[in-house]
C-alpha cells in the first residue's frame, strides 16, 4: 500500500482509539486529497475554461449588437433576453449553441428582426445537441433533402422497417444505418423540419448515397430468404418556424 495512504489510515485509526476530535478530520483530509485531489485540479481547469467561454460569449454578443444599425437598435424585450441569458449559462462551453443564444440576444435588440424572434427559440436551443446544430446548418444551404427508411420487403406481402429517418447530414456514407436518425427526428419533434414519406424526389439520383451505402450493401449481402432489401424514399424539409429559427439563430 502507498505509504502516504498507510500513514493516513494509521493516523485515523489512532485518533479513533484516542477519541481525538481534530486528528480524524486531518486524516480524512489526507485521504480526501489522495482520492479527489486530481478531481480538484480538473474542477479548476473547468472553471478556467468556463471563464474563457463566458468572455467569448460576451464578446460575441457585443460585436453583434455593435453591428446593428443605430436606427434599429432597441431595448430587448425581457421576455426574450431574460430566458435566453438564464438558459445560456448551461451551454456556455458548447460553441455552436452559445452562438445561437448570442444571436437571439442580439436579434432581440434589432427592431428589423424582433418580429422574427419567437419565444420558443430559447426552449428549442435548450433541446439541441451539437449534432443537431450542425444538421440545422444544412437547411441554411437548401430547404429540403432526401431521407429514407431501410426496409425488408416480405415475399408474402408487407414489409419490415429495419431503419427509419436515415439522414446523411454531413456524412458521405451510411455505415451503421442510423446516422443522424435521432438528430433529424428531434428536429422534427421541435418543429424545425418536417419529414414525409408520402412524397419523394423525382430525381432518383438524390437517393444514390443511400443505395450505394455500406449499410445497404451489408443488408443486401445478408441471408434473407423471405424478403428483399429496399428503400422507402422521403423528403425532409425546413418548416416556416425553422426558417425563422435559421434567420435569427444561425
UniProtKB/TrEMBL annotation:
InterPro entries: Abi_alpha. It comes from the Bacteria. Pfam families: Abi_alpha (PF14337). This is DUF4393 domain-containing protein. The lineage of its organism: Bacteria, Bacillati, Bacillota, Bacilli, Bacillales.
